[in-house]
């Protein structure tokens, strides 16, 4: 049975959306990934869902895109890493363990490297892993497609940012429905 996202049991991980890495992506693709990831972060902040943000070798790939760092909450955990899988960094795995969350939602760069490896290792550790397909990318669309196919074959839940948001909300009567719907509307107008 395929689970749906539960806001009380979710943790959002934003992987390596960094200046130099974003610059290596097709411009439209990078813009979409930043916007969709920002939407997920803003919604997580509203709903009190913890966020872990990673940076792959920031000395070489730069800092996280400012549009996202401006959204980091007081509880956002920042992790620098050199391991392609986030699970190779002890600070990351400690953050996952201490959150006591069973569902991990992934966004970021690159689908066929850090996203893929992290998703598979988190799933191997018994967690329910969701990848927001419209919030992940690779430099090459063929690598991205192949990674999405591999994720599905591995039993990772490939979803999208809007599905995640509405699963977190569960009902139009949710106290934050209008606010989060407004974020979606603003995004659609751009």
What is the secondary structure topology, with strand pairs?
Elements: E1 10-15, H1 19-23, H2 27-47, E2 51-56, H3 58-61, H4 66-69, E3 77-81, H5 90-99, E4 103-109, H6 111-124, E5 128-137, H7 141-153, E6 157-159, H8 161-169, H9 177-189
Parallel strand pairs: 1-2, 1-4, 2-3, 4-5, 5-6
Helix pairs in contact: 2-8, 2-9, 6-7
User: Percentage of helical residues?
Assistant: 40-55%
Shape: globular
Strand order of the largest sheet: 3-2-1-4-5-6
| Largest sheet entry | 6 strands, parallel
User: What structural category characterises the helix and strand content?
Assistant: alpha/beta
Strand elements, count: 6
By CATH's scheme, which homologous superfamily applies? Isochorismatase-like
Our Rg estimate from Cα atoms comes to 15 Å
User: CATH architecture, please?
Assistant: 3-Layer(aba) Sandwich
Figure out the total of helices.
9
Overall pLDDT metric: 96
List the domain count as a whole number. Answer: 1
Which spans have pLDDT < 50 for at least 5 consecutive residues?
none
Top CATH class: Alpha Beta
The CATH topology is given as Rossmann fold
CA-CA gap between termini: 36 Å
Strand content: 15-25%
Order of helices and strands: EHHEHHEHEHEHEHH
